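re the bet — no i am not wrong, look at it urself. input seq straight from the record:
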Amino acid sequence: MKIIYKILILFFLGFTFSSCATTIKVSVEHPPIADMRGVKKVAVIPFEDFTKTGYDPMIISNILGFLFWGDRSSVSHHEGVGTKLIRKAIVEEMSSAIINTGVYALIDSESLVGVDTQDYYKFVDVFIVGELSNIESTVNTHETTTNEKQSDGSYKKVTTRYDSRDVRLDFNYRFIRAKNREILYTVKKSGYKSAREDSARRLISAEDMGVSIVKEQLSKMYRELVPWTDIEKRKLMDDTMKKKDPSMKDALKLIDAKNYAAALQIYNTVYKKTSNYAAGYNAALLTEILGDLNEALKMMGELLARVTRDSKSSKFAEKTRVAIAKEFSRMQKYYIDARTLMDYRKR
């Protein structure tokens, strides 16, 4: 089956300066990170609390008291954090992400209460489970003293004091296919927030900071659910051959003018005539950019085979082989992605 791979050429960043390769930016469509093919109904199960402070938020703050850091100009204490609000925020953000796709039906987890997980498939296609694994909140008191010059030329010691709160949060979740309980995708999220005020009483609460972290960490959850696009760079290979073909520069001028098809013809001609690695590499990249991933993959594979043979007797070829192998591997992955996208379009 021929895969027609479509990417949008955005713009050309500029010519190469000696050792800096020419770069083209493209917009590339990817399939969902989780394999959601055939999925119509999704449920988010309330998250578990696996934190040490989640069950009694006051214990740690009462026991630890104050700890001194460094030169006593900064005093800190650890505090317990209630996790109910944060866990609720995780479920709400996930539920919103699912609804906003416009693709899946969100099934209320309340309808699954009392249902054995083995029977979830009767109600949903995929369910998401997870846990809040860690939350740390530390309040710090800072004091600094400086000598400030007065209008009369004298100096006066001025003390500045402020309080800060630092919150770190970790949570994990899994997409599980209800029919056979296969784990489709596992995610680990970690986030950090810091706030400062002139008084500890005015600091935003640790719970609210935790909710802010959750929203930030799940802002791109749509990528796990539906096809999404991203901006990527394609770097052309510099011509490092001792005997340079002047038409390679002509190809760069055409690329600068966004005439990629004409540049491709030059690279193909140079490669067939001289076996120039850069010409073959750039021809494969431009073929991909112009939409024919099948042919681009074939060209890059043949080039890799050739360079691999040459690398047995050439250090230069070995160095080039690594770059070509990396790009060939990326194209292979994108070929699989293109087939997956075709499946999603059949929904």
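see?? The chain has two domains: 7-22+237-345, 41-65+80-137+169-226. told u. also Residues 315-345 form the longest helix (31 residues). so pay up
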